[in-house]
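The methods section describes the discrete structure representation at length, but only in general terms. Since the whole study asks how a given chain folds, the encoding of that fold should be made plain. An entry of this sort, consisting of the sequence and the corresponding backbone structure tokens, reads as follows:

. . .
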Amino acid sequence: MKCPYCEREMRKGYFIDREAPIQWIPEGSKPGLFKGSLAEGAVQLGGGSFWKNYSATAWYCPACKIVTVPVETDS
């Protein structure tokens, strides 16, 4: 994947959590009340379940020092 800022090749990796969905939470929102729940207005990144680690594919640009995380959808 090419970096959207500098057009250099990015390195593929992932975020992982053993207990809760990986999510982007809008500023001003609070995390979900229970483990495994999403916050109000949150966007879940990647997949997983209570029985399997939650993970989200991510791309890192060493030149720009940014990480991008595409939102995976079930289509």
Q: What stands out?
A: DSSP finds no helices and five strands in the chain. The chain has one domain: 11-68. The CA atoms of residues 25 and 54 lie 16 Å apart. Strands lie at 11-17, 23-24, 43-44, 54-61, 66-68.
